[in-house]
Amino acid sequence: MKYKLLVLDVDGTLLNNQKEITPHTRKTLQKAQQMGVRVVLASGRPTHGLMSIAKELELDKYNGYVLSYNGGRIFDMKEDKILFEKRVNPEMIPYLEQKANENGFAIFTYYYDTILTNQPENPHIQAEAALNKMSVKGVENFSEAIDFWACKIMLVSDNEVALVGLEKHWKKRLGGVFDVFRSEPYFLEVVPENIDKANTLGILLETIGVNSEEVIAIGDGVCDISMIQSVGLGIAMGNAQYSVKRCTDYTTGSNEEDGVATAIEKHIIAEIRRTMIPLEQLNAMAKHALMGNLGIQYTYASEDRVEATMPVDVRTRQPFGILHGGATLALAETVAGLGSMVLCQPDEIIVGMQVSGNHVSSAHEGDTVRAVATAIHKGRSSHVWNVDVFTSTNKLVSSIRVVNSVLKKK
C-alpha cells in the first residue's frame, strides 16, 4: 500500500467535542488497521491519558504506538514498553517553580496516574486530571516533591498577558535548554529542547523502518503543523485554524463530522478498493451455491486480503444456538478460495488441498461473523492463507489455515 502509518492528533481531531470516538470513526480506523495500516496517537496528553483511547482502538493488537507529551515519549502498545523518551532536567525545576510563584501561577507535572501541583484546587488542573482520568495531589514544595525526571512541566494562569510575556522571555533566554509554548490560553508548557511531534515521529519512523512518504498525519492545532508538514500526506481537520489549513495538502471534515473517517476512506480504503473485483456479481452468482445457502457475502477482495461475512442463524448454528465449526471452516475456504482466484493467471485453476482450524471462542445465534483472509504464501504451485474469524464485537472465534493448490488448465 502507498501509506503504511496513520498519525492522529487526539483532542479536536480523533475525538469529537464530547471527547468521544464516534462509532463510524472507530469502525473506519479498525478497517484501516485490518488492512495493515498502523496507527499512532500523537498528543500533548500524558501517556496515561491516552491508554484508554489506544485500547479502545486496539492499538495493542494492530502494532500501534502512542506518542505522548507532544513528543516526549513513544510507547509501543504491542510490546507494552517505552521506545523513546526525553525528560526535563530536574536541576531546572526550582527555577521554574520560582518563576511560577513570582507570577502567581500554578505549576504541575504528571507522575504515572497522578498530577502533582502547588494548587490542587485550580479548575484548569482539575479539568486536566478529569480529561486524563488522573488524580490530583497537592504538594507544598513543588521542586522538592519532583524527585523524578518529568516529561514536561506545566504553568497555569488565566492571566494570558503574563503567560505570553513569560513565554517570550524564556524563548529568548532559555533557548537550547528547553522549549516553551502555550497549548491553551491558560497553559504554558515546558518540554526538553527539540521535542515536538515531528521530531519524535521521525525517531519512530527510523525505528520501525517506514519512510515519511508512506505516512498520513491528521491534526487541527498549531502544534500539529510540523508533524503534518513532515509526512507524505498532511491533512487538516475542518475545525482547524486557518494557519493550519494553509500548511496542509488536504482539509477533511471537522471532528464533529467524522473528519478522520472521511480522510481514511478517501486516502486509504479507496486506494485499496480500486483493485477490488466485482463482489456484487460474485455474491449474486453464488446465491444458490454453498456460500449462498450459508448466507456468506464477500465484502472486500484484493491480492493480499479477502473478507466476507456470515450470519449465525438456523443455517450455520449448532442445535444449541452457537456457530457450527463446520460452517466456520466453509467460510474460511470461501474467502481463501477467492483470494487464490484473484492471484491466479488466466490459464490456472485453484483446488483446495488442506484446511485446519483452531476454534478459540463461540459466536451466538443472531450475530454476524466476519472472516479476514491474509495471504502468507503466494507460490507458483500453492497459496497459503491465514483466516481469522471474528464476532461483530471483534472477539476472535477461530484462526484457520487454508492451503490451495495452483494447477494449469488442461
Annotation keywords:
6-stranded mixed beta sheet; 410 residues; alpha/beta
Low-confidence stretches: none
Strand order of the largest sheet: 5-4-3-2-1-12-13-14
Radius of gyration: 26 Å
Helix content: 25-40%
Structural class estimated from helices and strands: alpha/beta
Overall pLDDT confidence: 91
Strand content: 25-35%
Shape descriptor: elongated
Calculate the terminal CA-CA distance, rounded to whole Å: 35 Å
Give the biggest beta sheet. Answer: 8 strands, mixed
Number of helices: 13
Q: How many DSSP E strands?
A: 20
Please, could you describe this protein's structure?
Helices cover 31% and strands 30% of the residues. The protein has 13 helices and 20 strands. It has an eight-stranded mixed sheet with strand order 5-4-3-2-1-12-13-14, sandwiched between helices. A six-stranded mixed sheet has the order 8-7-6-9-11-10, sandwiched between helices. The protein has a six-stranded antiparallel sheet with strand order 15-16-18-19-20-17. Helix 1 packs parallel to helix 10. The longest helix has 19 residues. The protein is elongated. The two termini are 35 Å apart.
Brief overview:
By secondary structure, the protein is of the alpha/beta class. The chain contains 13 helices and 20 strands. The two termini are 35 Å apart.
Produce the secondary structure layout:
Blueprint (H helix, E strand, L loop, with lengths): L4 E4 L14 H12 L3 E5 L4 H10 L8 E4 L4 E4 L4 E5 L7 H11 L2 E6 L2 E4 L5 H9 L3 E4 L3 H4 L7 E4 L3 H14 L4 E7 L2 E6 L4 H12 L6 E5 L5 H5 L3 E4 L5 H4 L4 E2 L7 H15 L5 H7 L4 H4 L3 E5 L3 E7 L13 H19 L4 E12 L8 E11 L3 E9 L5 E13 L2
Parallel strand pairs: 1-2, 1-12, 2-3, 7-8, 12-13, 13-14
Antiparallel strand pairs: 3-4, 4-5, 6-7, 6-9, 9-11, 10-11, 15-16, 16-18, 17-20, 18-19, 19-20
Helix pairs in contact: 1-10
